[in-house]
Structures are given as structure tokens and as C-alpha cells.
């Protein structure tokens, strides 16, 4: 299993996910809502924390990987080379 970064902010994750077709559709308080229409519509909510907790990051990446139909480790290697 690939090790996740420990110093990633919510804003940085949102920018990385934009490469996969996600775009910020709204912000409520300290949370961003990203949406993609690639492979069907999918929403993900990211807290704008600095840094993101590892469990939170893992959950978000697992959700994105499941929607994209790619293994989570492949997604992590693509986002964090």
C-alpha cells in the first residue's frame, strides 16, 4: 500500500483532483464540494483543513477511486508521484 502524504491541505487536494475532472461547485463554511461528470456524476466533500487527517484523506481517495473504477493505490501513485 502506498503511503499517503501527511502535510496535504484540503485546497491542495482539490487542485490535484481537478486533474481527474473534478471542479469546485460550492463552498459551505470550511468545506468544499467538488463534482465531476466523468463516468457519471459524482460529488465529494473536502474539508479545508491544514493538514487533512490521514483517515479523511484515505476516505476521500477511496471514494474517488471507487467512482473512477481504478485501484486506490494506482490513484495515489497518479496524484502523488
Topology:
Blueprint: H1 10-18, E1 23-28, E2 31-36, E3 42-47, H2 54-68, H3 72-79
Antiparallel strand pairs: 1-2, 2-3
Question: Number of helix segments?
Answer: 3
Over the alpha carbons, how many angstroms does the gyration radius reach?
Answer: 12 Å
Overall mean confidence score, pLDDT: 94
- Silhouette: globular
Helix % is 25-40%
Unreliable segments of 5+ consecutive residues: none
Largest sheet: 3 strands, antiparallel
Provide a short characterization of the protein structure:
By secondary structure, the chain is α+β, with helices and mostly antiparallel strands. The protein has a domain of 56 residues.
Describe it for me?
This protein is α+β, with helices and mostly antiparallel strands and 81 residues long. The protein has a domain at 24-79. 40% of the residues lie in helices and 22% in strands. The protein contains three helices and three strands; from the N terminus they run H-E-E-E-H-H. The protein has helices at residues 10-18, 54-68, 72-79; strands at residues 23-28, 31-36, 42-47. Strands 1-2-3 form a three-stranded antiparallel beta sheet. Strand 1 (23-28) and strand 2 form a beta hairpin. The longest helix has 15 residues, at 54-68. The chain starts with 9 loop residues before the first helix and ends with a helix.
Could you list some keywords that capture this structure?
3-stranded antiparallel beta sheet; 40% helix; alpha+beta; 22% strand; single chain; 81 residues
